[in-house]
Amino acid sequence: MKQVIVVGGGAAGMMAAVTSARNGHKVTLLEQNEKLGKKLFITGKGRCNITNASDMEELFSNVVTNAKFLYSAFYSFDNYQTITFFEELGLKTKIERGERVFPASDKSSDVISVLQKELKKLGVEVLLYTKVEEILEENGHTKGVIVRKDGKKEIFMADAVIVATGGISYPSTGSTGDGYRFAKHKGHTVTKLYPALVPFEIEETFVKDLQGLSLKNVELMLFSGKKKIFETFGEMLFTHFGISGPLVLSASSYISSFIEKQPIVAELDLKPALSEEQLDARILRDFRELQNKQFKNGLDKLLPQKLIPVIVELSGIEKNKFINSVTREERGRLVKILKHFRMHVKGLRGYKEAIITKGGISVKEINPQTMESKMVKGLYFVGEVLDLDALTGGFNLQIAWSTAYLAGISIGDS
What we know:
Elements: E1 3-7, H1 11-22, E2 26-30, H2 38-42, E3 51-52, H3 56-61, E4 63-65, H4 71-76, H5 79-88, E5 93-96, E6 100-103, H6 108-121, E7 125-127, E8 130-138, E9 141-149, E10 152-157, E11 160-163, H7 178-185, E12 194-196, E13 200-202, H8 206-209, E14 214-224, E15 227-238, E16 242-244, H9 246-259, E17 264-269, H10 276-289, H11 308-315, H12 328-339, E18 341-348, E19 356-358, E20 379-381, E21 389-390, H13 395-410
Parallel strand pairs: 1-2, 1-11, 2-7, 11-20
Antiparallel strand pairs: 3-6, 4-21, 5-6, 8-9, 9-10, 12-19, 13-16, 13-18, 14-15, 14-17, 15-16, 17-18
């Protein structure tokens, strides 16, 4: 039996504590907040997208950064084992569009509840309002932690420490970057950090007129100069500051490093199912039916009402012009705008709105088969604190469950 301390009571922290305790260790879970799972509570808009029920190849393809590092973690505890784990704890699950797995109740609180019950059953000591200030080390081996509780400092001795402090996204949930500080103090490299899975701010003022408009089945392309850096298809939303929605959140994970170097242009194909020739034929068909109407009233069959004034303005076609007077050249301009609706990305929204943090502790300095630090024996890092990130759809939580599980079963092996 080893004395194990887990720092951080989020998804990865609770999983690490459960797994360590199931492996016969005496576990203490330290959380600086007033309760466990604060960030987990708000994930998936309060529904908690636990994992994704896709195959292993899909799982890896949705990891944006350092997918190969996760080989041992994913194969030790995959997405189907995650579903079984929760089902065995009494949490019924369901699979929705995109293979996303949710609790059947649609309540993230139920996910936290079953984890807490298991922690209690296993005899894990949970200490809330307990902030870890430093990790103790002697001769290259972890010895415990220094904590501050009720204004007083205290030392907790341990054979192993698992750091599961998360990143710096949603700081209101307690993600204050402590894990990065611990890692640096022990000689680890922390890569550059960016907000990820986060909306875009757009320069064009017309986004305010489109606020609240949701578009389905559109294609988004991102360009840095002339280079296309990302392309995806799906659903998006206009906001008062720019664009959001699943499409945009996924794209944000790919542009962080580019956005600092030169401006990014976001280009929407509003009708990706049609070629330019097919779209022109479709518009011509509509125009024949509506030839005695004004141009501003001739796009109802083609576009959502809210989008029409913006498209009319961008087309340069006089809005009161009768449709039967619209020239072939003008129609060609309209087609181009619908297929290449361009917006200039001013920047990404901040960490307060970012679902995850991109960047973190360099995985080159972590043993991928155990999650143990290569610098300090008995020190483990799991979840978002590492330089690992994935797209939306339950993949980031799977990284948390898998890395935490692997650390929990590896204690005592080194």
